[in-house]
Amino acid sequence: MGIVAESLKIISEEEKNSLDEPMVSVDEHNAGTRKLYIESYGCQMNFADSEIVASILRNEGFSTTSNQDEAELILLNTCAIRDNAEQKVRKRLSSLSPLKKNNPNVKIGVLGCMAERLKTKLLEEEKMVDMVVGPDSYRELPNLIAEVEEGHKAVNVFLSREETYADISPIRLDSNGVSAFISIMRGCDNMCSFCVVPYTRGRERSRDAYTIVNEAAGLFEQGYREVTLLGQNVDSYKWENADKTEKVNFARLLEKVALIHPELRVRFSTSHPKDITDEVIYTIKKYDNVCNYIHLPAQSGSTRILEMMNRTYDREWYINKIDRIREILGDKCGISQDMISGFCSETEEDHQDSLSLMDYVKFDYGYMFSYSERPGTPAAKKYADDVPEDVKKRRLNEIIAKQREHSHINNLKEIGKVHRVLIEGFSRKSEEELKGRTDQNKVVVFPKYNFRKGEYVNVLITACTTGTLIGEVVVEETDLQKL
Ligand code: SAH
Ligand code: SF4
Ligand code: F3S
User: Is the pLDDT confidence value at 3 over 60?
Assistant: First the structure.
C-alpha cells in the first residue's frame, strides 16, 4: 500500500496518537473562574508559547479547560509553515462557527504564525474571529481582550526585537510531569528561501541565560527529569549580561543546564548544519546527562537545491558535520533529519542525491514534507513551484520508504543492548506497560512491575518495530523489590 501523505514523521508508534493533532489545554482547578480553552498547532515552540499565554491570562482570572463548550475565550495558536497547516486551522474555525452563533459571548482569538502572516486579512476572511495576535504580542492580550469585550475587533501583530518572555513562568499545559520544553530564543535570521518563519516570528533573539537555568532548576525541583531547549536554530544562541562581563554561547548554556543535576536530562532542538560547533558536540560528550541525540535537518542532498534553498551549506559540508559528530561521539549519537521533496526545479537527479545522502547517514528517524510554496518567501518570489504535485508525492513516498528502512535497521541494531530509560508514563496500548526514552531519543516499551514515571531504569532491548524498541527491565540486586 502506498503512502500518499503530504508529510510524514517516522517516529514511534507510541507517538502516533499525537501526530498532527493539536495540543489542547488541560483542566485547571486551582486558578480563576473565567474559562480559557487553547488549542495549539505547529511546532513545540508554539506549544511553549501557549503555556506563556496561559500564564499571562491566569493573572486576568482565567483558568484553562479542555472543554471548549465551557470556555468564554477560545484561542487557536496557529502554524503557517505549509498550506495544509493553515487549511487545518480554517476548518477548525468553521467548526467553531455554530458555537459562536449559539453563544455570541464566546470570544475567539487566533494567535501565532498564521495570525502574524495574515494580519487583519484574517478578520476579513473569517468572520467569527474577534482577535488576531502575533507571537510577540502576548503581553498585550489582557488589553486586547478588553477591547473585544467592548465590542471591537482587536489586532496586534507587532514583531519585537527584544521580547523573549524571559520573566514569565509558563503554565505546563500538556505535561507528563517528567519532560518539559524551554524556549531559549525566538525568531530566525536565516532566510531559508522556502520558509515563512522569519516573517511570522521575526528577528532572532536569545533569552537571558539565567532565566533559562532557573526555569530548568525549578522544573527539576518539581520532579521533572528532562528538559528540551528550544529554538529555530539553537546553535546561534548568544547572550551576554548587562555589564558585558559574561558571554554565553549555546555550548555554555547546555553546560549550565547540565550542571543543574546529573539526573536531569538535557535535550535541544533544532540544530542548523551550518552552525553546530565542535564545542557543542564535545559538551554532549562531556556530560552524561546531555543526550546523545541531534536533530540536524538536511532539507535536500543536492548541492544545487541547497543553494537555491539558501541553506548556506552544501552536501559535502553536511556530510562532514555527520562525520564529525560520529568521530567525536561514535555511533552512540542518534541523528534525525528533515527533508523536503519537490522543491522548485528539483530534478530526478537532485532527488537521488537526497536518497543517497540518507543512505550515507542512515538517520534514526525523520520528518519529511513535500514542498508547499509560502506567499512572500524568497522562493515564492524568485522560483517557479514547477514540480508537479504527483511527482512531489512520489518522491516524498520514496524518501519515507527509505527512512522506514533505516529506522528499522537502526532499531534492530539495538536488540541485545541495555539502555538507561527515563520513564514517561504508560504505553499507549496498556497500563501494564511503561514507555520511556533512551538517551538517543528512541521510545522503549517494557513491562511495568513497580516502576513509576520519572524514574530511570535499565532496559534490555529484546525486539523492535520501525518506531519503537521493546524490552525487559534489568535490575541490580538491591532493586529486586521493584520486580
Ligand atoms: N528551524 C528548523 C526548521 C523549522 S520548520 C530548521 O532550520 O531546520 C520545520 C521543517 O518544516 C523544516 O525543517 C522543513 O523541512 C519544513 N518546511 C519549512 N517550510 C516548508 C515549506 N514551505 N514546504 C515544505 N516543508 C517546509
Ligand atoms: Fe526556517 Fe531556515 Fe529559520 Fe529553520 S533556519 S526556521 S528552515 S528560515
Ligand atoms: Fe509553524 Fe510557526 Fe512553528 S510556522 S512550525 S508554528 S514557528
Answer: no
Instruction: Find, among 5, 7, 4, the residue nearest to 340 by Cα.
Output: 7
CA distance 483 to 479: 8
The stretches of 180-314 forming alpha helices (DSSP H) are: 197-201, 209-221, 250-258, 278-286, 303-308
Residue type, 120: T
Say how many Å lie between the CA of residue 232 and the centre of ligand 1: 10
Q: Does the model's pTM come out above 0.90?
A: yes
In whole angstroms, give the CA distance from residue 255 to residue 240. Answer: 16
Q: Give me 171's grid cell.
A: 503554565
Asked if residues 443 and 468 have their Cβ atoms less than 8 Å apart, the reply is yes
Our answer on whether the CB atom of 239 is closer than 6 Å to any ligand 1 atom is no
Mean predicted confidence (pLDDT) in 127-139: 97
pLDDT, one tens digit per residue, over 266-306 is 999 999 999 999 999 999 999 999 999 999 999 999 999 99
Q: Is 458:474 a contact under the CB 8 Å cutoff?
A: yes
For 87, the 3-state DSSP assignment is helix
The identity of residue 342, as a single letter, is: G
Distance between Cα 221 and ligand 3 center (Å):
30
